[in-house]
Amino acid sequence: MEKVTTFLKHSWEEVQHNVTWPKFSDLQASSSLVLIASLIFALLVGMIDYVFENALNFFYRSF
């Protein structure tokens, strides 16, 4: 149990003193970029799915 306690104490000290935390404005900018990229990717995948679905339906109806 002592090893776990020591590990947790050292981890907490590391987080408090050695980790460089980004500014809130940087986090907002990064989050906005990820949101926009995710939406674009979702729309692209949706369009590809729509095209393939219609193409396959057309192909199956032709037989």
TrEMBL record:
Superkingdom, natural source? Bacteria
Q: Which GO terms describe its biological process?
A: intracellular protein transmembrane transport; protein secretion; protein targeting; protein transport by the Sec complex
Q: Which GO terms describe its molecular function?
A: protein transmembrane transporter activity
Q: How does it sit in the membrane?
A: Single-pass membrane protein
What Gene Ontology cellular component terms go with this record?
plasma membrane
Record field: transmembrane: 32-52
Keywords attached to this Swiss-Prot or TrEMBL record, sorted alphabetically, are: Cell membrane, Membrane, Protein transport, Translocation, Transmembrane, Transmembrane helix, Transport
Query: Does the keyword Membrane belong to this entry?
Result: yes
Where does it reside? Cell membrane; Membrane
Chain's role:
Essential subunit of the Sec protein translocation channel SecYEG. Clamps together the 2 halves of SecY. May contact the channel plug during translocation.
Q: Which family does it belong to?
A: Belongs to the SecE/SEC61-gamma family.
Q: How does it assemble?
A: Component of the Sec protein translocase complex. Heterotrimer consisting of SecY, SecE and SecG subunits. The heterotrimers can form oligomers, although 1 heterotrimer is thought to be able to translocate proteins. Interacts with the ribosome. Interacts with SecDF, and other proteins may be involved. Interacts with SecA.
Q: What is this protein called?
A: Protein translocase subunit SecE
Organism name: Fibrella rubiginis
Its organism's taxonomic lineage begins at: Bacteria, Pseudomonadati, Bacteroidota, Cytophagia, Cytophagales
